[in-house]
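step=encode ok
step=design start
structure_in=
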């Protein structure tokens, strides 16, 4: 117990002073938690409080954020060519930088990373692994990470998952994400190893192959699956076509991320696989290890231990006000990011700022926003309002034709939204009935003549992550 206390103290001091955290110390702390769980069945409150951080009290939260931003900016000024130049141009004083100063500084966007990626590599960084974005929303971006980072992130994830009861030695994970997401895959492997769990890395393969793995009757049958909503939709469709039911699977939980997850698809996953929970998560290659998850009230809660979160207005780049739409801007803190860090990275993911009142959800100790509503470039601007991709998708995926995975194209024509959909979306329902569904949801959506295209044509118009199919010999017909 004394050694555990020392390890906790070392971790706490590193977090407070912004010094590199020894990944091995964290791994030993994971072992301590495993032993505690084996002996007592639950972890101690002190470790849980350490992970939650000083966020319940607004004053403590702001003090922590100011100190973390200063430490991060000081390091960027020393070792990041890109931010050395940017900070000098805008006369940034890292020693006195506060949360209130951030709106005066420009954000970093994907185009900046793509224009000069080497300028973002730190002078003392030791690149070991490159990971790329999927490219479904534009040209892929390449990010380098160090061995220190991947070990640290994995140990933090394992520790957090154990304390929340989400992982453990009895779990078996199936990972159906693109093999291009090398950092995420490596983290899945390391987290499972540290938690003494089992893991299968399958990728985006033929759905029948994935279902065969999920339905195995062996002792290592998957109990948790990580995938994208669009691939989850394909698994559901294929399972139903094959006559498979919840009795064929051993899943307890599905972890979904990378795309918008609708209530209709969530319910279908629960019914098809018999899972107790479908976790809606947020993560982005450029801002690792900052991540988030959606609570039962539909709020997105991001990890404030590892990074600073802002929501800026769509039109002014100033802080968005309660009830207003804005984009998530994320600054990963040092020492959690060291090789290719970003500062005030505008994810272009749109959220709505919650009302300025206390939260009452299970993650209420951490501030939240709405769930991700879509990308800023995909917003539909009508004369009297802005319509988000989530609003369209949630109505669309709830259609009785169950057009999953969702493919459609939407544009503003005069004062309404014109929707282009595939033929499959009209199975058992007419165009006027589809339009009525949107009207009932408060959306003036119309399907004009010529706006119903073949399923193949629609696949080219709207790329999804499930399109990143990785063929295998077993999948050949």
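sequence_out=
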């Amino acid at each position: 117990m004394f050694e555990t206390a020392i390890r906790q103290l070392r971790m706490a001091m590193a977090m407070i002073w912004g010094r590199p955290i020894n990944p091995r110390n964290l791994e030993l702390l994971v072992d301590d938690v495993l032993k505690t769980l084996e002996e007592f069945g639950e972890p101690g409150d002190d470790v849980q409080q350490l992970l939650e951080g000083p966020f319940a009290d607004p004053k403590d939260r702001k003090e922590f954020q100011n100190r973390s931003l200063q430490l991060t900016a000081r390091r960027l000024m020393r070792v990041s060519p890109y931010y050395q130049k940017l900070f000098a141009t805008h006369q940034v004083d890292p020693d006195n930088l506060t949360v209130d100063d951030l709106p005066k500084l420009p954000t970093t966007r994907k185009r900046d990373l793509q224009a000069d990626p080497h300028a973002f590599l730190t002078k003392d960084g030791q690149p070991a692994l490159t990971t790329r974005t999927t490219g479904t929303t534009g040209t892929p971006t390449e990010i380098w990470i160090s061995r220190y980072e991947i070990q640290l992130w994995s140990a933090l994830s394992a520790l957090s998952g154990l304390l929340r009861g989400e992982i453990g030695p009895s779990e078996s994970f199936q990972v159906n994400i693109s093999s291009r997401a090398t950092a995420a895959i490596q983290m899945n492997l390391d987290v499972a190893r540290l938690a003494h769990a089992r893991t299968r890395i399958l990728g985006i393969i033929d759905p029948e192959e994935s279902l065969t793995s999920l339905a195995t009757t062996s002792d290592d049958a998957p109990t948790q699956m990580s995938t994208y909503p669009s691939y989850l939709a394909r698994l559901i469709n294929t399972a139903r076509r094959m006559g498979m039911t919840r009795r064929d699977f051993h899943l307890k939980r599905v972890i979904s991320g990378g795309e918008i997850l609708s209530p209709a698809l969530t319910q279908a996953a629960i019914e098809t696989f018999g899972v107790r929970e479908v976790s809606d998560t947020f993560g982005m290659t450029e801002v690792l290890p900052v991540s988030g998850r959606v609570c039962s009230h539909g709020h997105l809660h991001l990890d404030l231990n590892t990074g600073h979160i802002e929501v800026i207005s769509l039109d002014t780049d100033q802080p968005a006000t309660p009830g207003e739409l804005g984009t998530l801007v994320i600054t990963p803190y040092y020492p959690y990011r060291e090789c290719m860090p970003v500062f005030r990275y505008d994810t272009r993911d749109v959220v709505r700022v919650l009302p300025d009142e206390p939260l009452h959800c299970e993650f209420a100790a951490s501030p939240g926003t709405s769930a991700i509503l879509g990308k800023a470039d995909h917003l539909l601007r009508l004369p009297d309002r802005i319509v988000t991709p989530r609003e369209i998708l949630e109505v669309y995926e709830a259609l009785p034709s169950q057009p999953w995975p969702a493919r459609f194209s939407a544009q503003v024509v005069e004062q309404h939204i014109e929707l282009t959909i595939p033929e499959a979306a009209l199975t058992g329902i007419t165009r006027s009935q589809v339009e009525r569904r949107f009207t009932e949801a408060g959306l003036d959506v119309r399907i004009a003549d010529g706006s119903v295209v073949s399923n193949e044509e629609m696949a080219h118009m709207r790329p999804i992550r499930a399109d990143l199919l990785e063929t295998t010999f077993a999948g050949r017909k």
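step=design ok
step=annotate ok -> Residues 2-107 form one domain.
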